[in-house]
Amino acid sequence: MSVYIGSDPDPLTLHKDLICATSGLFRRYRQERAALTLPNLDPRLFELYAEWQYANHSKTVLKQLKAHEVVRAADGTTDTPGAATLHELFELGESLADPTFKNAVVDAYIDAMAKATEIPTHLAALIYARLPSGSSFRRLYVDIWAWNADDMWFEDLEPRDDPLTAPGEFWLDVTKRIVEMGKSRYDSRTRPPWVVDRGQYHESEEQVEEYEEEEDESMEVVMKPDPGDE
Asked: Using CA atoms, how far apart are residues 228 and 230, in angstroms rounded to an integer?
């Protein structure tokens, strides 16, 4: 199966059985002889996805992003590019209707947060703008804030991490979760919800078949002649 990603003029050639095993989007087009063009996807992110597929879903591919690390730029500002990339990869998984990949991204984020010293607030705007309300990644992000946040997370912030720039809906969700968690979040004997059961943030892999059968116009797909047939 030949796939053009974004504006990249060169297609990626992917094994159809491999790529269709977990992606509802590719399953829908597996009988097509034409090449697929996915103009709205980022080639950089899709290459990571393809690497994960061909590495037999190895955790190493996502772990090497080092999402827990804070990187300091020459101007003194800091960033967590690995964490942002994991969010973008989850969004890619949404576009490809690949719950297996999304679950792997969630696991990678949970593992990274075990080592993280801060959770950037600016990711909230991206997550709430691009992911649906029922998204498992969105719920996980809220739970991490509700369980771990302290006053240090509001000090010496980059301008983009100003709490006032985060969506009001995000702060409302965090407040609700704090109330739901109650005093348990202050009990050192109680483990965080993602440690107790990370599976609650996973999605059913049966959704692949559901997506294959449903009509979905949210993802732009263009067909063109397959260069492999020329």
From this structure: 6
Helical (H) or strand (E) element with 49: helix 43-54
Q: What is the pLDDT of residues 183-228, one digit of tens each?
A: 888 787 889 999 999 999 999 877 666 665 665 556 677 766 666 5
Q: Give the whole-angstrom CA distance, residue 11 versus residue 120.
A: 35
Q: What is the pTM of this model?
A: 0.87
Q: Residue 11's CB: how many other CB atoms inside 10 A? A: 18
Task: Identify which of 33, 32, 36, 19 has the alpha carbon closest to the alpha carbon of residue 230.
Answer: 33
> What are the CA-CA distances from residue 172 to residues 167, 168, 177, 179, 193 (Å)?
9, 6, 9, 11, 19
**Secondary structure element (H or E) that encloses residue 19, with its range:** helix 16-20
* 3-state SS assignment for residue 37: strand
Name the helix (H) or strand (E) containing 75: none
pLDDT digit string, tens, across residues 148-160: 887 777 777 777 7
d(CA 140, CA 133): 12
